Amino acid sequence: MRGAVPRLSLALLAAESGARLCAIIHYLVRGQLGWFGLTIACLVPGYAAQLLSILWFRADGHPPGCWLLALHLLQLGLWKRPGAAPNLPKPRWATCHGDSCRYWDVLRVAAEKGGGAGEALAQLGDVCVLRLLEALLQTLPHLLLQAYVVVAVDPAGFIPGVSAGLSLLSLAWALVSYSHFTCLLRPGHLSPPAAVILCLLLWRTGMLGTRVLALVLFARLYSFWVFAVAGAHWLLMSFWLVAQQTDIVAQPCRWRLFNCLLGAVYIFCYINVRPGPSKTRVAVFYAVST
């Protein structure tokens, strides 16, 4: 099952990137320069994940060459992704320490050493964390934009609709693959069966889809008032995270920034960032944010 996770991740990543490129060409050909510019702008936050990838590569003692920089400029760094050096601070769930790893390396190690190999688990965790970051920074804004185009501007638009659908599925899978990895980290836990993974994917897709649709419909009816509603939700979730005293980031300034950024993510979905049972926190999240 572990080998299937990077395979599906690669397939969705390629499909999402292809659909995004088609959407860009679609707006350019039709002369819709406003939507063309906004779609291009949604690519910019994704460079944060590419920059982090380069920093991990340099910290590992491998100065990036021209070909590697070109890959990251094209936002293909996840296909050839470096592992982190031991002296570079990382989140507690990102535990890969070693040489360059990528989705292809995960597949190779899983095939050579089996699904339970520790090297394969470390590499899988590294790419899952980086893919989740890229999905939240880049795929989510693109999903919101394309969903708004389909709902409010061009309901018959096939290409924006396909791009929005693939972005939704890719984002949901990024969350599922992260949950899959954190489950494997727990002592005595085996890889979840395919039925569990499918249920998680359906849950994440439905949750994200309904929240995105609700925000898009609200924006269509009330225009910029949607930012007031989303802002209030963001502040509430940020204060809730501060009250939980999450200790993933030690420095006070970075800790506050982390809680603010995660509070924005909580507008759309719940991500467990604390060890231990999370049933109470999940119940509180859905009770407040429903």
UniProtKB/TrEMBL annotation:
Segments crossing the lipid bilayer: 33-57, 147-175, 195-217, 224-243, 255-273
GO cellular component: plasma membrane
Subcellular location: Cell membrane; Membrane
Keywords linked to the UniProt accession: Cell membrane, Membrane, Transmembrane, Transmembrane helix
InterPro entries membership: XK-rel, XK-related_scramblase
Keyword Lyase in annotation: no
Membrane topology term: Multi-pass membrane protein
Family note: Belongs to the XK family.
Protein name: XK-related protein
Gene name of this polypeptide: Xkr5
